[in-house]
Fold this protein.
Amino acid sequence: LFDNLLLVVPNVLAAALQLVVFLAFGGWALISAGARMVPVANSSVSIVGIAVTIVVGLVLAVMATGALYRGAADALSGRPVTLTTLMAARLKYFWTILGFYFIIIVVGLAAELVVGLLTMITQSVLGVFGFLFFIPVVILAGVTLVYALPAIVMGGIGSGGAISEAAEVAWTNVGQTIVLVLALIAIAACGFAIEFVMGVGPTSLTLTMSKFVVNALFQLLFVVLSALFSVRFYMLLSGRAPQIETDSSPDAIPTSSAP
């Protein structure tokens, strides 16, 4: 990570642009209102502004994801990480990554709908069991899909194909994949612990801003480490370092036969 600090650029740019949009639509008034415990309705922020900020943030997040995983693949393949390749990757993988997230959201909403229907039909009896069943399903989904983004970026695979590829690699190497997932959970738990500790005590604008900065830095670290870890495990467990391009493009990651 410290040898390739450019890996943080995509997410830093995405966060900065989203912050600019947020502030442009009255975000500072909302932050100040929250620090003074003033109702949001009394601030100058608008529902339209919040909606625009969310949409812009989602688009920028998808673009940053493609750039980050491309940079991680370059770094772990021994290639230099450059701003040129990072910026080009933002659009190169945008629709495929967006399609992947769309599939996950649709499946998740369908599962929640089933649990909700069971709750209403059986007066919460089966709904409770459905919710308890939903928890291990989410964990299994996380294990299954942990290599999907590396498969998209490194293998040039489509959204559906990346899910199949990720599942095959994950369940063929269950032990190693569980180690990876547990490591990511441990890092995330540290972030939640830090957020909890900073949330204890009186509320002030300074504390709110400090908490925001610390959380942002930790989330940035978590995202970059997640990309590096998942790409590295994917390269090792798949037994290859797939090419991004099928031709002789200078941007292609060279194939490696060593696991």
